[in-house]
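HOLO CASE FILE
Compound: iron/sulfur cluster
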Amino acid sequence: MDLKNSKPRRVAFYTVGCRLNQAETAVLTDRFRCLGFQPVKFGEMTDVLVVNTCSVTEGAETDCRRVVRQVLRKSPNAFVAITGCYAQTGAEALESIGGIDLVLGTQYKMQLPNYLAALSSTDKRVQPELLHTRKIDHENFTIEGTGDYATTRANLKLQDGCQFMCSFCLIPFARGRERSRRADDAVREAYALAERGHRELVLTGVNLGQYRDAGVDLLTLLQRLESIPGIDRIRISSIEPTTIPDRLLDYMAASNKLCRFLHVPLQSGDDKILKAMNRRYTVREYAEFIEQANRKIPGLCIGTDVMVGFPGEGEQQFANTQSIINALPVSYLHVFSFSNRPGTAATKLPNPVPPHIIKQRSQELAKLSQRKRFAFYQQYVGQSVAVLFESRHAAGLWTGFTDQYIKVGVQSSDDLSNEIREVTISGVTDGLALAHLSAGMSQSDELLQARPLLMTSESV
Ligand code: SF4
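Model generated. Tokens follow.
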């Protein structure tokens, strides 16, 4: 395709994986737009496809093949660029997938729009071009552009990389050593996001608690972000348990803008497994932290990640995990199945857990998570809470979240999009708290009786 004769060039994105990948795709979208491309929805005809991959699970390669085939059926001449964690860790495997034109490792990911804009032609390649280095810069960084989001919540990337070297995790290889975004640059993007009407910022990073830029730590940066007009809520996404200082908890307890929300990965409730995972805490230390956070911050929502099927996880170890989660004030779990990732230390460990046991344990923890979430939501029945509304569903139900990430549904003919409203919770069903606007006009009690709602809360 000759770029000079085919403007505007359309670009579609397919993003797999974590919130950080979503944040990066959002900034890439903005950069492409600024450079004269027209972003289109995935599934529409396109001239360029960008796949932002993940390598956390074994399915990354299969997923890539499927997406590339799917897009090329509809847009046979689309130029296909693959980036993200799997482009870093599985570049050779990707090179062999037919239809791919460009593979960009982590070092080059955010330069993709400039690179494509500078090409005189995005004709399909016979052989994919590979832009990849094993070494990834770990200096502090800036990000050109502002995330492009359709939602009221916008991710703000503050940090990348990790060197904790948990034995199951490929991220240190996929994203490199830890590094922090320049504080001024993060604040600049936050102002731009506020100007675009985003009222909630979700701070993201691989290991957010390690944020440091020339004497600015996460708490200091948070205080700067809180002062931005138009930003009503700031949410910290997943953060490692050993990286949260007491003063951050105190600040969360006192702040009107910092959401009462912590997602703190546990991974296992057994000390032997935690040690083999190379995690940096014992079960007791984790439990003491969670109890302290819960004491300091009334109404705090605590989520956690748990991994099942790590090598050596017998019945007793799994029972220990269930037991500590039952005992702690955890509000929900994200359950991950151990997946043997070549290149990680865990691949060498003995006593693998059979897949059918992993599946069974995963299902058990998923049920435990449902019970925990239900119990957390249930405490608020009859109470008034503030909800930032996001979207209206086909059934006419507006949904949004409280600062504690309780998903709330309200039947209303008002346009509640991007509005913060007081509601009274009247019941709980399937990961959703049903409520009515505190001014009245509720049909939500009827809804609670009348139909099962199959919405689930999304992850932070
Ligand atoms: S803390 Fe552990 S699990 Fe999290 S990104 Fe770093 S190495 Fe991976």
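CASE NOTES: Confidence is low (pLDDT under 50) at residues 440-460. The chain has 14 helices and 21 strands.
CLOSED: yes
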